[in-house]
Inverse folding.
């Protein structure tokens, strides 16, 4: 290589950098979805909704990545960090281990993790009180059930999903102490978030045992569960996103977990410079969880049901009802 | 009490059949291919491709039967590709099969993304676009479940009782003899591979438009390999392989029913145990009960005509 090339290329690269330097004010956000896939009509799609909203409002580009399996998490996080994407949202509890490593390597970048806590100054951890929202849909399930038997199908068998289940169970018993809950988990690996066939089979097994309302807390697997409910003329309850529109008439409600808000707010805060690390816990009070009522399920929710659920909601917010959190002691005794 | 036992037995057998249907179709397909001497590791890929094209076509045309047709055609295309690599060009059959699986896993998602823009999913199918449970017999099963059941005696008859079947078996054991008798080895093997594609295509269509309502990424979830295991388990014989498929289906149905059940004296048995049960039993049975599985002699060996 001739000697003059080195300073010349250096000059060139400085020239090339110049337009970027002048555009430093715009952020370069990125999001890494969980293994269920961006279009799972549930958890990841909720995040995607928030991201789309941010994109539209600020007309900034958001880099997105859908990992095919969990080994890609760390790789994807590091790749985005090396490219200088900031902030980076990691979606799902299973990214926590990888993020703890990567966030340490890039202390000047900002990271947000949804559904888990990573205790580092440059990480914003957003977790939800899923038990509170599940409590409310549990009440609705118990009130809508004719047979007194309610079903739960979870995705991967982890404490987080048990938290949904435990809150659901408490809501059922609160509305009808005699009602019975039949629970299944789809699997023990992340593949359990993406197996609608097995979800449908689990739901059918529950229907055969007398269940007439089923709560699907299983990401993409839920598509199969809610479809099975429709095929058998039973009621289904969606999760994370509002899934009522999937099967109008057989969708009792959805447990809303506002991951869309979480993603949107995190980007927005980074955009206006108010981004902060630390842990945020979003419950009913903070509007982080809720139950869904819209034109698709309003016929299934009687005025009586609505009154009772809204009363319980107010009581939870006021602290009069204490919904036990499974993850506080890894048991569901309340 | 008796009624309850009977009703549980009925529900369990219905669940077993639902789960076993794709396994049965796939195992019978694999049987044709492997008895003719062509190893088929690509059952999974054929099924996945068929599932995607069945769902995509059903969604686009609004007709479930068009979906089934497209699924079968897609699986046949892969079968022909496998045949072209393994029969015409005498390639390694395992490598070709694995390549087909990888191709199917990638291509379905890429095409799905390009056509429907939903991350590789097809739009959810409505009742008209699916094969719904038959009104008669009223067991909640779609017609493909009965097709799967009929495919077993049909395979047994075709392989065991016809001239075509005799030649098919001969070509898997001693292709030289078939060639010496003036019958085309390649022709027979191509026919076997096409029969395999037909059945694997039906299995894929069943998964996407009867069992589920649309395609999702990797939705076959390893069932092609389980069917292959059932085929070996059943020593490449139709009724034995059918039995093995039912056993896998039954174990799955039991695992689903027993989850979260409280056993007296022990308490709630961990989910993991029930999920491991099918695999544990498979190992147990393979080790002790079924004895040696003898493959067709010429399996995996490309036939080279000597001049």
């Amino acid at each position: 290589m001739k000697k003059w090339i080195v300073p010349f290329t250096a000059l060139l690269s400085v020239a090339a950098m110049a337009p970027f330097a002048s555009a430093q004010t715009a952020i370069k956000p990125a999001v890494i979805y969980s293994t269920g896939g961006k279009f799972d009509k549930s958890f990841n799609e909720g995040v995607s909704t928030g991201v789309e909203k941010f994109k539209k409002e600020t007309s900034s580009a958001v880099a997105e990545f859908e990992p095919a399996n969990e080994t890609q998490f760390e790789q994807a996080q590091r790749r985005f960090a090396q490219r200088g994407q900031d902030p980076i949202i990691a979606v799902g509890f299973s990214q926590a281990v990888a993020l703890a490593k990567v966030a340490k390597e890039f202390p000047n970048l900002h990271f947000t993790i949804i559904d888990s806590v990573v205790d580092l100054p440059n990480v914003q951890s957003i977790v939800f009180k899923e038990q509170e929202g599940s409590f409310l849909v549990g009440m609705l399930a118990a009130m809508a059930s004719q047979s007194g038997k309610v079903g739960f199908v979870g995705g991967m068998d982890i404490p987080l999903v048990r938290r949904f289940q435990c809150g659901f169970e408490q809501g059922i018993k609160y509305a009808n102490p005699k009602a019975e809950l039949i629970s299944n988990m789809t699997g023990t690996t992340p593949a359990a978030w993406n197996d609608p066939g097995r979800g449908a089979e689990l739901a059918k097994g529950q229907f055969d045992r007398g269940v007439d309302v089923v709560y699907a807390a299983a990401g993409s697997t839920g598509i199969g569960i809610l479809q099975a409910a429709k095929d058998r003329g039973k009621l289904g309850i969606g999760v994370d996103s509002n899934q009522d529109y999937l099967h109008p008439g057989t969708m009792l409600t959805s447990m809303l977990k506002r991951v869309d808000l979480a993603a949107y707010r995190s980007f927005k805060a980074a955009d206006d410079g108010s981004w902060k690390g630390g842990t945020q816990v979003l419950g009913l009070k903070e509007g982080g969880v809720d139950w869904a009522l819209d034109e698709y399920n309003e016929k299934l929710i009687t005025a009586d049901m609505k009154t009772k659920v809204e009363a319980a909601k107010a009581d939870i917010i006021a602290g009069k009802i204490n919904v036990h959190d499974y993850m506080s002691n890894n048991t569901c005794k309340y | 009490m008796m009624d309850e036992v009977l009703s549980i037995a009925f529900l369990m057998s219905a669940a077993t059949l639902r789960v076993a249907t794709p396994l049965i179709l796939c195992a019978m397909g694999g049987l044709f291919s492997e008895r003719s001497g062509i190893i088929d590791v690509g059952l999974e890929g054929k099924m996945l491709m068929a599932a995607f094209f069945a769902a995509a076509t059903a969604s686009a045309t609004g007709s479930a039967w068009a979906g089934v047709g497209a699924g079968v055609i897609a699986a046949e295309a892969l079968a022909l590709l496998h045949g072209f690599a393994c029969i015409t060009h005498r390639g390694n059959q395992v490598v070709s099969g694995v390549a087909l699986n990888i191709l199917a896993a990638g291509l379905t998602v890429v095409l799905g993304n390009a056509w429907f823009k939903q991350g590789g999913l097809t739009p959810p199918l409505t009742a008209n676009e699916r094969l719904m449970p038959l009104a008669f017999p009223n067991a909640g099963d779609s017609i493909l479940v009965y097709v799967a059941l009929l495919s077993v005696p049909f395979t047994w008859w075709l392989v065991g009782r016809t001239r075509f079947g005799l030649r098919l078996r001969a070509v898997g054991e001693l292709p030289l003899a078939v060639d010496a008798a003036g019958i085309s080895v390649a022709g027979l093997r191509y026919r076997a591979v096409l029969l395999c594609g037909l059945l694997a295509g039906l299995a894929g269509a069943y998964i996407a438009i009867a069992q589920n309502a649309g395609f999702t990424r990797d939705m076959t979830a390893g069932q092609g390999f389980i069917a292959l295991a059932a085929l070996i388990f059943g020593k490449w014989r139709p009724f034995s392989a059918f039995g093995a498929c039912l056993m896998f289906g039954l174990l799955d149905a039991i695992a689903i029913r027993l989850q979260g059940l409280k056993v007296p004296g022990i308490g709630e048995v961990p989910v993991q145990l029930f999920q491991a049960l099918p695999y544990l039993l498979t190992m147990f049975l393979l080790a002790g009960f079924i004895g040696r599985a003898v493959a067709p002699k010429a399996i995996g060996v490309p036939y080279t005509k000597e001049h």
The two ends of chain B are 72 Å apart (CA to CA). The domain at 2-288 of chain B is CATH 1.10.3470 (ABC transporter involved in vitamin B12 uptake, BtuC). The mean pLDDT of chain B is 88. Residues 202 and 261 of chain B are 35 Å apart (CA to CA).
